[in-house]
């Protein structure tokens, strides 16, 4: 506490005005993704090609022939032909805004072209706008131009010359670097000059540099200046800022504006911060928001400071109504703008809904939604009566006070009704009206659309982030919304008139939407009958059409010349492009199953399987240090290559699979299914099943022996943990679930017991099952679990919750015949079904993985009701589809088309294939799969 962050004005965070988890008052590394987007920042600027400036500058010099220019994608790079490029050292970053970028580049280029150091810059102003956006990672923002000096001396000389050339121009502070001088656009940090990456134990790439002994060390790109401890800085110390310009350290925090004592940060973002603070003049609790200069600059030159001032004006306008926090002070310090406002006690409505979902056992019906819906409508009416348009009316921006009353917070987009000059293209996907996102002038009718989306979230705990159809036969956005909402409404216990109200409020034409007054009338009407249950089964033709569309999409989007074989849209960091969970092996496995089932054109599938196999094996040879796990490492790759080779009759690919399998260790630091020993052993069992090689079974047994020996036995039962000293996010943790904990390990031991007949493995698997029953959280007819001992019940998914634990218990029932395991597996299934109206489509933590568990129970018990439940989930999945180029595809939770097993379309395709064609569950070794080809 009391640490002043490297970005001089103090702590950087963002978001809500109410209670939230505590954080130290300093920057930290985590990236946050918030709902409000200003697409005007990213798309409304003049997208002139900045590389034209480089070509023009080169034509005026006599050194054109010694420069090689690479202009492709988001960057334009210039490299001198002579000299040897260093692999790491002190690099320079020059910041700019989309407005100032042409001037910054024009002034910098003469300096750079006289030097001998490579450099690169963003090729367009639109890309720079995205780099400077409020949501961009704090460790990457602001880096318009990067210079790789060929010596420390040149780094210092270039820094001075670039500072002089660009002095007075606008650009944000680069948080990962140290500024050359106060307010300078030039920054420096020590880091990699050429791409050097290493795969972590968790299967993600990290940028690395080498220490003096040649050991790889992470090249940290975070929101603060953290040079390696072995380097000596060649730059002169920057002049100290004037006292009084900066927030001052205090024994209990940081004093901002000589008045507000910030004790903790709510959250850090590129925009700046939000802090809990105390007004030292009055003793009142306040929230202080910060806006950094030149972040989020739009085409008019407005940045986040202007938006914070807009919020202050909106709060002042609403002050007489009492519907929002009071403004305490708006002030500027060290060019940052701060807004101190009244602290509103309570909970953001999104959290309020999620807390009720959890407390109600993840059931579909959410308690207390009807009276809350009436309060939400009243809140919006009050704001409109005060002459304001909110433009971001969402559950994130509504605070629920302890007495249930509501207040509106984070009003940075709110404007008077008559203000038609404010920038458009703003809002929150899923909640903002389409015309508002397209740039329409402020209009209360846009808020009615947001009201409908917020009432939808209140009713089902989810909001529709749907992707518009394209191509022949496309549905209107409202038709797609109607299908999506209707599939989820049953089970809410709410009248059908409320569903109709939501749909009417979210009509695409503003004139067709009812008003808040109309909404209040509907919500006051006597209760009518709830919606009838939708049909159980997904129509066969719809399922087949979806399967065909997904398979065709995967075949059409394979990119053998790219860094990733299939595109990924989700924010995963930098995962291994070859793995099962996030890479090519997962897609290869699903396409192999398509080939076995006769789905899609055989010739095209054969070509795709061969291409993918070659692509993976080529990259296996060029990447060292890949972890050994099933979902995040070499075991899963060996599995996928073997199955593809078997389908193709390709001995060369089969040999590659055997080669990968032969170097698998029998044990890893991590014990689990996804990253460690249990997944390795499971792979060895699978390959033994397919080849009959006794050595593979013997090695699988060694994996099981290791897990038996490393089990932690205590009062709470058996558990397994990754060692605390391991370089892994899982280090030291003990989990219950299938992906990382007891259920996954227990499943592997049960499978090994079935394969070997060894009673020791059977006994330990049974002890694992007993442990899980001990920690179960019964809720009427449902079974739930926390992520670990003492944790509250988590969502019933495959990775941590009831779906994955039930997956193991069902198989333990098959192994032992003990009806208790069947009972708890069935209770797990009830939890899955009850929660199915909300959630993403993924295998790992969504509907596809949950529905596969229901299919497991149908196969193991013969109970047809589980098949009916799986079809019901399939209808929910199907209602989230979109049509792209006449193909059925399924967006991920961010609206992207992701081709990853764990959270993308391959996992959805796997579920639909099994629903329609039967067969075993992928990446499992159940007896039902013996003798099959997948």
TrEMBL record:
The lineage of its organism: Bacteria, Bacillati, Actinomycetota, Actinomycetes, Pseudonocardiales. InterPro entries: Kinase-like_dom_sf, LANC-like, Prot_kinase_dom, RamC_C, RamC_N. Gene3D superfamilies: 1.50.10.20, Phosphorylase Kinase, domain 1, Transferase(Phosphotransferase) domain 1. It holds the Pfam family LANC_like. PROSITE patterns: PROTEIN_KINASE_DOM. Zn(2+) binds at residues 799, 844-845. It comes from the Bacteria. It comes from Allosaccharopolyspora coralli. Residues 1-22 are annotated as: Disordered. Keywords: Metal-binding, Zinc. One of its GO terms (molecular function) is metal ion binding. PANTHER family: LANC-LIKE PROTEIN, LANC-LIKE PROTEIN 3. This is Protein kinase domain-containing protein. GO terms for biological process: peptide modification. CDD domains: LanC_SerThrkinase (cd04791), STKc_PknB_like (cd14014). Residues 260-528 form the Protein kinase domain. One of its GO terms (cellular component) is plasma membrane.
């Amino acid at each position: 506490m009391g640490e002043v962050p490297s970005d001089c004005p103090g702590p950087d965070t963002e978001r809500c005005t109410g209670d939230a988890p505590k954080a130290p008052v300093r920057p930290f590394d985590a990236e946050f993704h918030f709902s409000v987007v200003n697409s005007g920042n990213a798309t409304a600027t003049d997208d002139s090609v900045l590389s034209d400036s480089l070509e023009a500058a080169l034509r005026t010099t006599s050194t054109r022939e010694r420069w090689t220019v690479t202009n492709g994608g988001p960057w334009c790079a210039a490299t001198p032909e002579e000299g040897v490029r260093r692999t790491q050292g002190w690099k320079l970053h020059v910041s700019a805004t989309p407005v100032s970028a042409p001037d910054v580049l024009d002034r910098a280029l003469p300096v750079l072209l006289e030097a001998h150091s490579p450099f690169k810059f963003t090729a367009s102003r639109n890309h720079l706008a995205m780099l400077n956006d409020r949501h961009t990672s704090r460790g990457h923002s602001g880096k318009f131009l990067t210079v790789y000096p060929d010596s420390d001396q040149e780094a210092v000389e270039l820094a001075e010359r670039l500072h002089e050339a660009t002095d007075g121009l606008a650009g944000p502070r680069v948080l990962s670097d140290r500024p050359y001088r106060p307010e300078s656009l030039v920054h420096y940090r020590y880091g990699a000059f050429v791409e050097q990456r290493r795969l972590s134990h968790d299967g993600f790439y990290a940028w690395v540099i080498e220490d003096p002994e040649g050991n790889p060390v992470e090249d940290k790109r975070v929101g603060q200046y953290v040079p390696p401890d072995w380097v000596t800085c060649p730059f002169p110390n920057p002049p100290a800022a004037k006292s009084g310009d900066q927030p001052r350290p205090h024994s209990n925090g940081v004093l901002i504006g000589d008045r507000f004592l910030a004790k903790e940060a709510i959250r850090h973002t590129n925009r700046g911060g939000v802090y809990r603070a105390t007004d030292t003049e009055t003793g009142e609790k306040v929230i202080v928001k910060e806006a950094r200069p030149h972040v989020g600059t739009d085409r008019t030159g407005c940045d986040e400071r202007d938006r914070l001032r807009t919020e202050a004006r909106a709060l002042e306008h609403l002050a007489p109504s009492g519907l929002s926090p009071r403004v305490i002070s708006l002030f500027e310090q060290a060019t940052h703008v701060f807004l101190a406002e009244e602290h509103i006690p309570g909970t953001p409505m999104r959290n309020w809904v999620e807390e009720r979902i959890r407390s109600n056992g993840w059931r579909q019906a959410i308690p207390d939604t009807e009276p809350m819906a009436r309060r939400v409508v009243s809140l919006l009416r009050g704001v409109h009566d005060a002459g304001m348009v909110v433009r971001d009316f969402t559950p994130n921006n509504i605070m629920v006070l302890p007495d249930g009353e509501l207040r509106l917070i984070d009003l940075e987009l709110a404007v008077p009704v008559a203000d038609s000059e404010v920038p458009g293209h703003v809002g929150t996907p899923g909640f903002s009206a389409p015309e508002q996102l397209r740039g329409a002038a402020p209009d209360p009718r846009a808020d009615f659309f947001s009201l409908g989306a917020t009432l939808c979230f209140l009713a089902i705990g989810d909001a529709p982030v749907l992707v518009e159809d394209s191509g022949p036969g496309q549905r209107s956005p409202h038709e797609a919304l109607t299908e999506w909402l209707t599939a989820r409404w049953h089970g809410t216990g709410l009248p059908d008139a409320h569903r109709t109200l939501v749909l009417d409020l979210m009509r695409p034409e503003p004139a067709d939407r009812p008003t808040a007054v109309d909404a209040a009338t509907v919500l006051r009407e006597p209760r009518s009958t709830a919606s009838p249950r939708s049909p159980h089964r997904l129509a066969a033709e719809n399922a087949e059409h979806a399967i065909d569309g997904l398979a065709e999409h995967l075949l059409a989007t394979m990119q053998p010349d790219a860094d990733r074989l299939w595109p990924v849209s989700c924010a995963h960091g930098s995962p291994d492009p070859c793995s099962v969970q996030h890479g090519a092996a997962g897609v290869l496995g699903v396409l192999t199953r398509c080939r076995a089932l006769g789905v899609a054109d055989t010739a095209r599938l054969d070509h795709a399987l061969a291409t993918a196999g070659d692509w993976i094996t080529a990259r296996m040879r060029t990447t060292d240090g890949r972890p050994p796990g099933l979902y995040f490492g070499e075991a899963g790759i060996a599995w996928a290559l073997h199955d593809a080779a078997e389908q193709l009759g390709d001995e060369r690919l089969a040999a590659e699979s055997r080669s990968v399998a032969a170097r698998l260790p029998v044990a890893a630091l991590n014990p689990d299914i996804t990253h460690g020993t249990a997944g390795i052993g499971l792979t060895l069992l699978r390959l033994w099943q397919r080849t009959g090689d006794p050595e593979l079974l013997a090695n699988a047994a060694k994996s099981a022996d290791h897990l038996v020996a490393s089990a932690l036995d205590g009062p709470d039962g058996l558990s397994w943990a990754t060692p605390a000293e391991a370089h892994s996010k899982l280090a030291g943790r003990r989990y219950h679930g299938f992906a990382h904990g007891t259920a996954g390990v227990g499943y592997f031991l049960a499978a090994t017991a079935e394969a070997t007949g060894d009673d020791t493995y059977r006994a330990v698997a049974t002890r694992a099952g007993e442990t899980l029953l001990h920690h179960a959280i019964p809720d009427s007819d449902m079974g739930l679990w926390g992520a670990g001992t003492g944790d509250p019940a988590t969502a019933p998914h495959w990775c941590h919750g009831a779906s994955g634990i039930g997956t193991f218990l069902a198989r333990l029932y098959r192994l032992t015949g003990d009806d208790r395991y069947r009972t708890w597996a069935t209770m797990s299934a009830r939890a899955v079904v009850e929660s199915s109206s909300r959630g993403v489509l993924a295998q790992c933590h969504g509907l596809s993985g949950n529905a596969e568990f229901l299919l497991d129970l149908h196969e193991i018990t013969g109970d047809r009701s589980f098949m009916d439940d799986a079809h019901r989930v399939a209808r929910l999945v199907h209602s989230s589809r979109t049509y792209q180029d006449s193909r059925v595809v399924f967006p991920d939770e961010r609206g992207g088309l992701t081709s990853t097993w764990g959270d993308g379309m391959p996992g959805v395709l796997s579920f639909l294939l099994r629903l329609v064609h039967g067969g075993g569950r992928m990446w499992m070794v159940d007896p039902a799969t013996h003798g099959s080809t997948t």
